[in-house]
Amino acid sequence: MLKLYYPRHNLVGKSPEWQLRLFSRWSVRDLVTQPLTAEEFLARPLIRRSRYLWQGRDSLGQWRKFYAGATREAWQECDLRLALYRGQQRVRLLSRPFEPTVRDRIVLARVVGRWADHDFDDLQLRVTCDGLRVVR
Hints:
Radius of gyration: 15 Å
Shape: globular
Structural class: mainly beta
Number of domains: 1
Helix content: 10-25%
Number of helices: 2
Number of strands: 8
Strand order of the largest sheet: 1-2-4-5
């Protein structure tokens, strides 16, 4: 069981109010090799995200997702970028880094919304994280 402090509300632009969480980690998603789809990003564009997304169960048995960089123990503000992927291979970065601010995330959401239905042949539009620091 992991013990970590995670914000009650993990939103960009909001100061974290830390809450102790007990968490059994089941899997880790790396947003560099498994970036967000347009739909995943647009569902919650103002979430503070980082490179690693831990997924598992909390102490109450509820399925939870935690961004490692949003924990007090591994705090890291990360930029997001648009890229084209073929499977897990990034082919091309399309955008400037979008900072973890409300303004930049709203702009990114508008851009993703405009390009989400575009045909990129065999490539997929994805949202990836620029936070390339290794977290153990």
